[in-house]
Design a protein that fits this description.
The structure is a single chain. This protein has 419 residues and is of the alpha+beta class. Helices cover 42% and strands 22% of the residues. It contains 11 helices and 15 strands. Strands 1-14-15-13-12-10 form a 6-stranded mixed beta sheet, with helices on one face. The chain has a 5-stranded antiparallel beta sheet with strand order 3-2-6-5-4, with helices on both faces. The protein has a two-stranded antiparallel sheet with strand order 7-8. Helix 7 runs antiparallel to helix 8 and helix 10 runs antiparallel to helix 11.
Length: 419
């Protein structure tokens, strides 16, 4: 079965599961207005099930949130990471005061920013606290004449503005604790992922270095202690050079991945003849792999002169084409299709090799990850991670379609820059 995966995968929300245990309504909104999380307390209050509303636009359930007075205030949280407070007096429709069970409720809502894991901005964590009992008790307290002018009608009940804003200290501590625990869980997840990458890096490097180092040691011993013909000496020197080249290439890939992820590798477009660029790259790979595969190249488009980053594009194509060759049988067909139109470049690399198992698709672009069916084929698991970062630096996207045993197609779409 064909599978198509985007470059980037959305993160899971398991870190928010602890918010089900609090006695405050918690809703997490994304900046496009869709609901990311809806806790159990809100399910009870509103009668709207989590499975029903998560992933949907909240304005479909609460149309008032599409009004400018709500949308503009929430944008302050989404765009600037600012805190926004909604009172039931002035914003009675944020969550209905008429509950699913028919009772009336007064609530106070606070939108707190939560930085997204991918660094693209903020989501809004909206805490909704029922302050009905608190306000009723406050109404029974004596008030001075100067405060009598602050009465407002809410759900047909007079309330004092200072009463609505005087939420107990416990609420503030609870909200801060929720945010702190959410941040801790996010940091812990990042640390666990970093430790996993370190372990895989050590394992990969020790494995990939052991073979060439062993070859170098054996060849050096033979050259030192054996009487060899000139032809034999040349062969052993060649093996040493090949081993050194492999280790140097591995180090270069690790350094390149580090540069692209740290942001030190800058995008520098220049005007090049893309048709000739791809043609020359195909010829270089034919020579490198001794023309053991059928490599075809086709071009369609409006113009061959486009502005792209030559170095980044070379890494993208070299890694994708090398993988296509590596994971295809001898004599297999590799296709490169180039199309330039509508101010974008579309590159499609298709092979008819072993394909990618479905269980590996979600982690295909993770550093050091290799598919489970490539046992015995040399590789570092860095190539596709480098490709992903190079595509992102272009402001482009990459997708793939694959079927195990039938082959894989990668499609790279890049915008054409102006130089």
């Amino acid at each position: 079965m064909n599978q198509q995966k985007p470059l980037l995968n959305s993160s899971t929300d398991s870190a928010f599961s602890l918010l089900d245990a609090v006695s405050v309504g918690i809703c997490i909104l994304q900046k496009d207005g869709t609901v990311r999380f809806w806790n159990r307390h809100l399910e009870h209050w509103t009668g709207i099930a989590r499975t029903q509303i998560v992933g949907q636009a909240i304005a479909a359930y609460f149309p008032h949130l599409a009004e400018p007075k709500y949308r503009d205030r929430l944008n302050h949280t989404f765009q600037q990471g600012g805190r926004v407070i909604f009172s039931a007096q002035f914003h009675p429709h944020l969550i209905p005061c008429q509950l699913a069970n028919g009772t009336l409720q007064v609530q106070r809502s606070i939108a707190e920013p939560i930085r997204r894991v991918d660094g693209t901005g903020f989501d809004a964590l909206i805490s909704i606290q029922d302050v009905t009992d608190f306000c009723r008790q406050a109404q029974q307290c004596p008030i001075s004449d100067s405060s009598a002018t602050m009465l407002y009608p809410v759900t047909n009940t007079p309330l004092l503005d200072w009463q609505l804003s005087s939420i107990p200290e416990l609420e503030t501590k609870l909200r801060d604790r929720i945010l702190a625990e959410t941040e801790i869980r996010s940091a812990l997840k990042k640390e666990q992922e970093l430790n996993r990458l370190k372990s895989r890096f050590v394992s990969m490097v020790s494995h990939e270095f052991r073979t060439p180092m062993t070859a170098i040691r054996i060849c050096a011993e033979l050259l030192e202690h054996q009487t060899l013909s000139e032809q034999q000496r040349h062969r052993y020197f060649k093996q040493i050079q090949t081993a050194i080249h492999g280790m140097t290439q591995l180090l270069d890939e690790v350094l390149l991945l580090g540069k692209t992820e740290s942001g030190s590798f800058k995008y520098s477009p220049e005007l090049i003849n893309l048709k000739d660029f791809c043609s020359e790259l195909i010829e270089d790979l034919r020579v490198m792999f001794n023309a053991q595969h059928q490599m075809t190249y086709t071009y369609t488009g409006q113009s061959t002169e486009v502005a792209v980053d030559r170095i980044l594009l070379h890494h993208i194509l070299t890694n994708l084409l090398s993988n296509a060759i590596k994971y295809s049988p001898i004599g297999g067909r590799i296709q490169l299709e180039l199309n330039c139109h509508n101010n974008q470049v579309v590159l499609r690399i298709r092979d008819h090799g072993m394909g990618i198992p479905s269980q590996d698709c979600d982690r295909l672009f993770d550093p050091f990850h290799r598919a489970s069916n490539v046992t015995g084929i040399q590789g570092t698991g860095l190539g596709l991670a480098i490709v992903k970062n190079c595509v992102e630096l272009h402001g482009g996207q990459i997708e793939f379609e694959t079927e195990e045993g039938q082959g894989t197609t990668f499609t790279v779409t890049l915008p054409i820059s102006i130089v």
